[in-house]
Structures are given as structure tokens and as C-alpha cells.
Design brief:
This protein is of the alpha/beta class. The protein has 2 domains: 6-95 and 280-298, Rossmann fold, CATH 3.40.50.720; 97-271, Rossmann fold. The chain has 11 helices and 11 strands. The chain has helices spanning 18-21, 55-58, 79-84, 97-112, 115-123, 150-161, 184-189, 210-216, 233-242, 260-263, 280-298, and strands spanning 6-9, 26-29, 42-47, 66-69, 88-90, 142-146, 165-169, 193-196, 221-224, 247-250, 269-271. The strands form 2 sheets. The protein has a 6-stranded parallel sheet. The protein has a 5-stranded parallel sheet with strand order 2-1-3-4-5. The two termini are 37 Å apart. The model has no long low-confidence stretch (mean pLDDT 95).
Amino acid sequence: MTQRPAVLIMQCHLGQLTPFLESAYDVYRFWEGPLAQAEPLIQAVIVAGEFELDKGLIERLPGLRLLACFTSGYDRIDVEWCRARGLAVSHAPGVNHEDVADHAIGLILAARREIVRGDRELRAGLWTVESKLMTPSLGGQRVGIVGMGLIGEAVARRAEAMRMTVRWWGPREKAGPWPRADSLIALAADSDILVVACRADETNVGLISAEVIAALGPQGLLVNVARGQVVDEDALIAALRSGALGQAALDVFETEPVDAARWAEVPNTVLTPHTGGATQEAVRGMLMLLMQNLQAVFAGEPPVTPVA
């Protein structure tokens, strides 16, 4: 009888993939205990791209052929290090960018139109005839987008449909209908809302610095649907507490899951637990690509969606 390929799932939230994988593979789960006996058998490791790669473990897997990133983002994966060891690296591109853009617009609405505050005040019995919550219209708001990839473009289309004006900045020129700012600082200074949608890598850590936050200013809204490490989180919290920044709406954080106490007393925030791309449809798309990549590599072919 031919031995089935063995795969290792690294993060416990990806354990839900087990039933889909077990029909074709022997599945091991990193969090369940010692792997010493299984290490020689494992041919693929399945990871979420926002978690740092355990290089020590990878080096103990002599039969490893594929590092399969379940997510689109692979910012915590040292791709060059993997390639130097002959490991193929795959991911799930183009699956959930529209959903992330939807979430970004939801964060803008929740913050600018004070939807979360209104919900809380109603439930607390604070809605009276005399108290009327007044908020700015989104019409005419200037949206600056950091990173004009698939997510940035999808946000831009939605923002225009909602009567907002769009500009963007990224390190490289790109043809498109929206003007590119001369610099990130210039974009922040000329924006009412700054949406962070850029790829996260080592060059972008702390990209949204105290200087950028100050340029956005006391009426500005910072929205982050990229990765937490792109924003200087300490500087952001300090600016919100001092009033140097008006609002923040965040789906991602430096450390995840985030310690709730870190944000408990920070004003003018809307926070969601990294759910921007977590729709049922997107997860099905990621699963399909994962299965295709595993099948291809175990058949001696390159991954279907390799990291470029």
C-alpha cells in the first residue's frame, strides 16, 4: 500500500482544514504535541502568512517540499530563505480583496457616521429627543489610499461610488484613474481618511509613523486593513489619546490576538478582530487553491499559485 503524503498544519485556527485534507493526506497538527516521529514524513507545511515561520522546525523536516500559505498575505514568511533550501512557497492571491475592501468601507462608515457609538448610546438608554448625534457626510471626504494593489483599487472604486475623492501613494508609479501623491506625508496631509492597504514586508514596518499620523491630523481617520506592523501602534495610541489624530478604525494589530486592555481606554476607535477577509466565500477559495497547490507539488509539478 502506497503511503499517503503527510502534511503539518501550524496554527490552531487552521485546524478546521483537517476534514478536507484527511481524505488525501495524513494530517498532523503542530499544537497537539511532539512531532519527532512524524518529522521525517512531513512533505508540506500549511501556515497563515501573518505568523512568523518557525525556521528551526522547518530545518528538521528532511522531506519537506512545500510551504503552503493558506492566506493571500505571506508577510511573515521568509520566502528567500525557503527558496535557498529548495522549498516551494504558495499562497492564495486574488481571493478576498473585494471582501477586505468591503470591510474597509464598513470601518469608514462605522467611524465617520459614529455607528458603533450610536448603538452603544441607544442600548445604554442615552437616546433622548434633545440629544441628536450629528456626524459628517461622506460626500466630498478625501480618501488617501496607501498601496494601490487589488485591495487599494477595490477601496478606491467603492469610495468614488460613495461620493468621496481618491488619491493614493505607493513607492512605484502605476497607471490608473486616481492621482498619485508625491509622498506618503503629502497624501496624509491632503486626506480626511487614510486607508492602509499596502503589502506588509520588512520595508513597510512602521511605515505609518508618528509623522504620518500627525500629518493626517486631529480631524483625520486612519483605517488599517493591511497588517498591524505597518502602523507605529504606540504612536497611534498616543495620538488618539492626545487628540492629535481624530479617529482610527483597525482590523489588524501589531500582536494578534490583541490584548484588549491595550485599547480599553483609547478614545475614538472602531476595532475588529482581523476579520476583513474572513468571509465564507473567501475561505472556500483559499481552500480550493490550497488543495490545488498540494496536488500539483505532490505530482512533481510547480505550485499553481506560487509566491512571485
